[in-house]
Known about the structure:
The chain has helices at about 5-10, 25-30, 55-65, 70-80, 85-95, 115-150. The protein is mainly α.
Amino acid sequence: MVFTGNMRKEMELVPPERSEGEHGEPSRSGGGTNSTAPADPEVESKAKRRQFSAAYKRRILDEADKGGQGAIAGLLRREGLYSSHLNTWRRQRESGEIAGLEPRKRGKKPVPRNPLASEVNRLARDNQRLQKRLKQAAIIIDVQKKLCDILGLTVPPIEMNENDE
């Protein structure tokens, strides 16, 4: 069969052109969407990483183990998975990583808190408080010595023990 130019136009699925004032024109009425408009070619700025629950991974692995080669391919297509997912999940299952089947949180891991840190902080506060009281006591003793000198009183010397510094 030989196609002529007119026959080719008739076979193409081209919507008829609208006149400027025709009803239903999206640009004027603001209603309706143009179904022939192409999809937005913009790609999302950040792709969202898929995470699979442990139950989902176990279910998929059970289905894959029950089915043959063709069934695995169909399963992967149906679920939108890659064969590398199955390989990784099988390896995790065989190594006994129960937590390996759970999705892992990405990024910097939290630093474990030292159990003695609170005790160290408490002792540091106590030390600071006692240092302040010692300073006040030293000032009071100096004032008492000066007062004794002014009044002409004698103060017996303080004996130092070997434990005192």
